[in-house]
């Protein structure tokens, strides 16, 4: 029995250790050692991290006769690995001399007689692979040990996802703080020299590049002239001489033409594979990759910022491009104002008013960024400290109980565990609400459309919240049109998320013995859904902010303040709309429409 090998308490303690770590490397090492020493008693346990090219590179191991970091697994050469990736589930070869799917070179190198392979799934994608085997002998591993190992891998997957989310939030905070500092510093830079020094300082941090050039655009001549440079590879004089030799114009450089005329940034990873840029200029400076940003002030482009990669190619992420553009945008106004102040012969009074107005705008932006930064910091702190560890531990415990490892369960117990598991999964999904909202705002969120019976979605949502309904002794009434075809083409999980948000709010704000009603209506290829409650209602002065992110109408009720904001965006992404009617003390009715997706 598994309990003879390792107690449930020990498994729980290992889970707490994993979730107390804040470095991915430490988590993976604890993870590997625990599987080897506490669960399987296998000779060798190795974790292989997925690479950008689809291969898997050795990362962590308990003990191996070779350096695991030198091992590389190519799914093209390993059928066993391909099966694991295709099914996204564990696989076991009891005898490698009979089952030949394993890469034979790896089998011989590590003397593998039998092997267990488990995928580490993070955010529905394979993050890495775990392999468990003995050295030179068949494994003596039981089905129970396999199940516990899989459960432990699932717990580690959640911990890895939380660490990645934490790192992403940290990076976002660092970027916002950098933008905040840059904006503030630029607002205090009144001379051209100060603006340029401030710009180069913060753009080097934002872009990770030491080569940054500012060019001014001569609208009359259509030429691009070198203005100011920050570089360790070329001097200012050399830079200007080479520019004079090339004589860049928007006619001989299509890339600059698009950036200037369309007022949008561009990034090219291989400049010679792209026909738009002036290749002669790039050969002269040995440029392999480049980012270009327009400097826009008062609606016009008066220059561009070029950030090349000298001597080697570089890949650019969209987030990097957007961040550097933000620095350029803040600089454009400050630089334009400074140039205007130093070159135009206006009165001191007129110049003072213009600079004061610019500073007021920048100071307003600083205050707004500071406020947003405080909200974000508070939210992340609450999320990471109050939710991550207990939810992960509960999920692991429920998974183990559901597998029957601690004993057989009767049907009622299984039903309760099923409800608990679904509720825990929903709670874990809420940890991703902020990331979902950010993706929506950046236009990177994609729906996964499938055909689904909407009545069944309603039933599933009711099933999930039934325990909450029973606990408050509420009455839940469902009025659906059973005689009508209720199949719709939607993202089922996101529609379920919307219903659960609306039902959860109704339950929170409805007193005991109250009534909640769900109504659906199909008409002209349009589905209308209504969620009624006779709860406390929403005060009139707060109704305008109901769909605003992080806003809570009742601060006495715990929550992130994101549920309705995300629901609104999800409904609008589906092509529908959401609204509500509410009177204080008389309850609320939330309504939304969705296209059915039928011709």
3D architecture notes:
The protein has 599 residues and is α+β, with helices and mostly antiparallel strands. Helix content is 49%, strand content 20%. It has 17 helices and 18 strands. A hairpin with a 2-residue loop joins strand 5 and strand 6 (125-133). The longest helix is centred in the middle third of the chain and has 55 residues, at 348-402. The radius of gyration is 30 Å and the shape is globular. The chain starts with a helix and ends with a strand. Residues 1-7 have low confidence and may be disordered.
Average pLDDT across residues? 83
Strand content: 15-25%
Q: Radius of gyration in whole Å, from Cα?
A: 30 Å
Low-confidence stretches: 1-7
Short key terms for the protein model shown above:
alpha+beta, five-stranded antiparallel sheet, GAF-like_dom_sf, Sensor_HK_Regulatory, disordered N terminus, 18 strands
Secondary structure blueprint with pairings:
Elements: H1 2-5, H2 8-20, H3 24-40, E1 44-50, E2 56-61, E3 72-73, H4 79-87, E4 91-93, H5 104-109, E5 115-122, E6 125-133, H6 143-187, H7 192-207, E7 212-218, E8 223-230, H8 236-246, H9 254-262, E9 266-268, H10 279-285, E10 287-297, E11 300-310, H11 318-343, H12 348-402, H13 411-431, H14 433-441, E12 450-453, H15 454-472, E13 475-479, E14 487-490, H16 492-509, E15 515-523, E16 526-533, H17 563-573, E17 577-583, E18 587-595
Parallel strand pairs: 13-15
Antiparallel strand pairs: 1-2, 1-6, 2-3, 4-5, 5-6, 7-8, 7-11, 9-10, 10-11, 12-14, 15-16, 16-18, 17-18
């Amino acid at each position: 029995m598994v309990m003879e090998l390792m107690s449930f308490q020990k498994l729980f303690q290992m889970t707490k250790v994993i979730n107390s770590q804040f470095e991915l490397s430490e988590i993976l090492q604890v993870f590997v050692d625990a599987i080897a020493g506490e669960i399987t008693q296998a000779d060798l346990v190795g974790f292989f991290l997925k690479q950008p090219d689809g291969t898997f590179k050795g990362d962590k191991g308990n003990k191996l006769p070779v350096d695991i970091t030198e091992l590389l697994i190519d799914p093209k050469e390993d059928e066993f690995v391909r099966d694991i990736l295709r099914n996204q589930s564990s696989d076991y070869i009891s005898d490698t001399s009979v089952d030949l799917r394993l890469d034979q070179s790896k089998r011989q190198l590590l003397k593998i007689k039998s092997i267990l392979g488990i995928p580490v799934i993070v955010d529905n994608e394979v993050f890495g692979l775990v392999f468990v085997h003995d050295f030179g002998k068949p494994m003596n591993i039981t089905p129970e040990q396999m199940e516990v190992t899989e459960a432990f891998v699932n717990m580690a997957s959640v911990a890895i996802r939380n660490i990645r989310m934490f790192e992403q939030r940290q990076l976002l905070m660092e970027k916002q703080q950098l933008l905040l500092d840059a904006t503030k510093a630029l607002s205090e830079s009144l001379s051209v020299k100060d603006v340029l020094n401030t710009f180069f300082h913060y753009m080097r941090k934002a872009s990770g590049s030491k080569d940054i050039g500012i060019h001014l655009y001569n609208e009359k001549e259509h030429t691009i002239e070198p203005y100011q440079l920050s570089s360790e590879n070329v001097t200012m004089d050399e830079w200007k001489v080479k520019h004079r030799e090339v004589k860049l114009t928007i006619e001989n450089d299509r890339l600059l033409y698009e950036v200037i005329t369309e007022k949008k940034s561009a990034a090219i990873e291989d400049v010679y594979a792209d026909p738009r840029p002036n290749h002669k200029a790039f050969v002269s400076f040995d440029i392999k990759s480049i980012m270009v940003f327009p400097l826009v002030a008062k609606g016009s482009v008066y220059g561009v910022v070029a950030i090349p990669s000298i001597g080697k190619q570089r890949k650019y992420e969209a987030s990097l491009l957007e961040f550097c553009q933000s620095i350029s945008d803040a600089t454009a106004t400050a630089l334009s104002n400074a140039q205007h102040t130093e070159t135009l012969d206006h009165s001191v009074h007129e110049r003072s008013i213009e600079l004061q107005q610019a500073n007021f705008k920048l100071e307003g932006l600083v205050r707004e960024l500071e406020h947003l930064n405080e909200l974000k910091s508070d939210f992340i702190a609450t999320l990471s400290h109050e939710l991550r560890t207990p939810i992960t531990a509960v999920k692991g415990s429920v998974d183990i109980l559901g597998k029957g490892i601690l004993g057989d369960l009767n049907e009622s117990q299984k039903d309760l565990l099923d409800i608990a598991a679904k509720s825990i999964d929903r709670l874990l999904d809420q940890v991703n609400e902020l990331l979902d909202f950010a993706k929506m705002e950046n236009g990177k969120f994609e729906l996964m459309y499938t055909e689904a019976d909407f009545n069944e979605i309603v039933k599933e949502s009711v099933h999930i919240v039934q325990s909450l309904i029973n606990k408050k002794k509420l009455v839940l009434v469902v009025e659906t049109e059973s005689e009508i075809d209720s199949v719709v083409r939607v993202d089922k999980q996101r529609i379920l998320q919307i219903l659960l948000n609306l039902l959860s709010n109704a339950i929170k704000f409805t007193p005991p013995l109250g009534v909640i009603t769900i109504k659906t209506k199909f008409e002209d290829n349009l589905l209308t859904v209504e969620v009624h409650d006779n709860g406390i209602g929403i005060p009139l002065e707060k109704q305008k902010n109901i769909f605003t992110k992080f806003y809570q109408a009742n601060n006495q009720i715990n929550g992130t303040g994101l549920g309705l904001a995300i629901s609104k965006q999800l409904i609008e992404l589906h092509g529908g709309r959401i609204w509500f009617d509410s009177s204080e003390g008389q309850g609320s009715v939330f309504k939304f429409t969705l296209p059915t997706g039928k011709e």
